[in-house]
Amino acid sequence: MQQKIKYRSEIDGLRAIAVIGVILYHSEIYVDGNLLFSGGFLGVDVFFVISGYLITSIILKEHLVKNNFSLLGFYERRIRRLVPALLFVLITSLILAYFLLLPIEFKSFLNSILSSIFFYSNLYFHYSGEAYGQTILSDQPLLHTWSLSVEEQFYILYPILFIFLLGVFKDKIKFLFYLFIITSVIFSSYISESHSSFNFYMITNRAWELACGALISINHFHNKKKENNNFWKILGFVLIIFSFFFFDSANNHPSYLTLIPVLGCCMIINNYNNDNFIDKILKNKFFVKIGLISYSLYLWHHPILSFGKISGFTENSLLAKFILILISFLLSILTYNYIEKYFRDPDKISFKKLAIIILPSVFSSFLILNVLVEKQKNKYPNILKNLYERTWFTTKQYYKPCFQRKKYFCFFGNTNNKHTVFLVGDSVLASIQEELKNSLVKRKINFIPMTNAGCDFYNKQKQNKFCNNNIQLNRDRKIRELKESIIIMHINYRTVDNDTNKIRSFIDNINKYLDLGYKIIVINPIPQWNQNVSQVIHNIYKDNKKNFLEELNQKSAISLEYYDYSAQISKIISKFNDLSHKNLFFINPVNIFCNIEEKNKCLANSQENIYFTDASHLSKVGSKMINSELIKLIEKIK
User: Most distant CA pair in the chain: distance in Å?
Assistant: First the structure.
């Protein structure tokens, strides 16, 4: 049996390749309109394999060879390795966020800090609806900490489970790992389309990548390593580089496709003691040194690039991105030499002293962050306080947004309540559901939102994972469970684009439920804008912070010509006007947003408030304006 773990400089070189891939991906470098390192996010998967290999090697050596494995000692080393550098980056990012982020963004950022500190940020970003890869470089500066949370969860659970399995199934341990990897890959591939966010963020779907590294370690421990096969090592390197350049959708991972970089990494780790050109690349001093600072580099690069994007510093500037990457390297070198190395060394600082530094910092964070929310918010004029708020993700049950549910829809209320209201539509309609839920629950009326992206209540010819016939059938089944309910519907005129078949299908649904005895409230098409409302107002603020309100007062509100808007929805309204039924009612957004403050104009904002948070979705204020009319009507017809 292998008696000691030999330092392998090529693994640090492999870390360097992984972190460079991730940085280049987040740098958003385009050539002829194509993202150059579109699969660089798979560098994280390479990290997972390396972690599985190294942690398993440590446990095998200390538990089976030296017989002195200490779970507390293992946890202490992980804390020394990860926490000090993480806290330093979080504190620095907090200072930048205080000055650069708007109130809604800052509040979300503080939640992400807490989730990072306590290693549940993968859960936080999943349940907050933050899809990784939705934009290549996220406006969430700490989104990258999801992978650190996955690793920490692995570090906490894995040693206990692995030692148990070694004790009970020692002779079958490899078989169990193979079985787990195969079934996990199949499961991840199966749900990658239908539950892409859960699949991407959760340790349950990432553990097989760590297990692949663990399996290599188990093979090495039993001297079943291949030392002289250059071909596999070269192939492994090619597979990783191929993945970085030719994969392009984070939502497809992990799945069977992820086997390509994962197996590539396994091939490199499994084959060592070779002197081929791949070894020369990975053992090159440049790559080894980057590998040594890779943890700090991973921590720093994303918030720095993200803040650069948020501030506008890197907009259309490759040079600005290059400068920020250099800053990331500089900070990483300093962090590695003066924080990582210092706090890892028990001779320089005892664990007791380390705990005295960390624990007060962590627990005081609750108080400090709560104070900062209000203090930061009060820096801004009222109209800026709700910019960019994603109101359609606000409504949650069991920590998960009600938006994008395909079958198990949220239910708010009590089964003893007499009346139920269904809200059925796309994300535009979802942007009113939080205010509507609060108003209905107060009145002891049940509320069931059934909202999905681009998914108004009609049959679509083009199916996708967000809107398909299965979702429509699940909606129908749920509605039929509660007879004589009220159904609120809306049709997005830009999505429909005057398609006669779509309009007819929508009207057929109205008539179907009227015939079944339901009461239907149709919200006529809500205005859509040619500009992102939050972005326009934010740009005015960035260009003239000192005199923002004066500048805003001088500019006209974001608006549509009433007659242009009327012309765009005329075909839909014409069809609606042909409908007549005692249980059919309409809400007309024209009476809410048009011809009120300015004649022949539909407005997206006033001088004090935004009515829409982007080009489509209602803000809190806009949602209240619609809901005020809805509640009056519901009270009247229930």
Answer: 85
